[in-house]
Amino acid sequence: MQTQAATKIDSVTSAGNSPWVSICETTWGYIISSDTQLANRAVLIEQVSALSGLTLLVTALASWLFPGFGGEMTSGTSARVAAFFGLAIPALLFLWISERGMTHEVQVDVVKSCLRLTVCNRKGKCRVLRQMPFDKIASAYIKRGQNVGDAAQLYVRLAGDNTALHIASGREVTLRVLHERLSRELRPMPTQMEGWERVGRRLQPAGHPA
Questions:
Q1: Could you tell me the CATH number of the domain that includes residue 157?
Q2: What is the pLDDT of residues 75-132, one digit of tens each?
Q3: Which helix (DSSP H) or strand (DSSP E) does residue 65 occupy?
Q4: Which of 45, 74, 120, 203 has its CA 20 to 30 A from that of 186?
Q5: 183 in the same domain as 113
Q6: Which residues make Cβ contacts (< 8 Å) with residue 197, sequence separation at least 6?
Q7: Do the bridges between strand 152-158 and strand 137-143 make them parallel or antiparallel, or are there none, so unpaired?
Q8: Radius of gyration over alpha carbons of the chain, in Å?
Q9: pLDDT of residue 12
Q10: Low-confidence ranges of the chain (pLDDT < 50)
C-alpha cells in the first residue's frame, strides 16, 4: 500500500449529469479520478463496514469471555466456539472491506514513466492493481456515450494484445483535454541533446543513476 502525496487538485469538470473528473497533481505526476456512483458511496460503505465489523468483533469476544452474554447461557465448549466464530468471521470480513478500499484511481507517474491502476480507501491508502510502462501502451482514445447525455469514456489500449483499460468517465469535451495531456506523457518528444537522456519528464546526464 502507498499513501497519496498530493500537492494540488484541479477540478476538470463538474457540469450536467456526467461524472466529474479531477486531476490531483503530485510530486511524481498526477492522479486521475472520476465521480462515479460507487466513488460517492465508497466512504460511507467503508465507514458502515468498519462500524459493523467492530460491533460484531466485540460481541464475539464478549460471547467467548462471558458465556451468559446476550441473555442465554451457552453450555459446552463446542457451542461457545461455534458462537464465537459465527460472529468473528463476519466481523473480520467487514473490517477487511473497510480497509481494502473501493475508490478506483489512475496514477500517471511521469518520473518512472508508468501508469498505475489503483484502489484507495477512505484513509488515502492505495493498492496497485496493475502497472504498465508507458512504452507498453499503444494509444489513448475516447469512446462517446451511446445516447445524448451519456458520459464519454477515456481508455488506453495496450500494445500487442489491444486490451483496453478504462481511465476516466465524464463529458467528452473534458476528456479531450485529459486525452491530450495523457497522450503527451505517453509519447514525449525525443531528446536531441547529445550526452543527455530522458528519465520520465526530466533530463539528466547519460549514464547518471536515476
A1: 2.30.29
A2: 567 777 777 888 888 888 888 877 777 788 899 999 999 999 998 887 778 889 999 9
A3: helix 37-65
A4: 120
A5: yes
A6: 191, 203, 204, 205, 206, 207
A7: antiparallel
A8: 24
A9: 46
A10: 1, 3-17, 71, 189, 191-192
Place of cell 463538474: 14
- Euclidean distance between CA atoms 184 and 29, whole angstroms: 13
pLDDT score recorded for residue 108: 94
Give the residue among 79, 30, 35, 83 at the shortest CA–CA distance from 60.
Answer: 83
Residue count of the chain: 210
The span from the CA of 182 to the CA of 108, in Å, is 8
Same domain, 44 and 129: no
Strands 29-34 and 196-199: unpaired
Contact of 33 with 103, CB cutoff 8 Å: yes
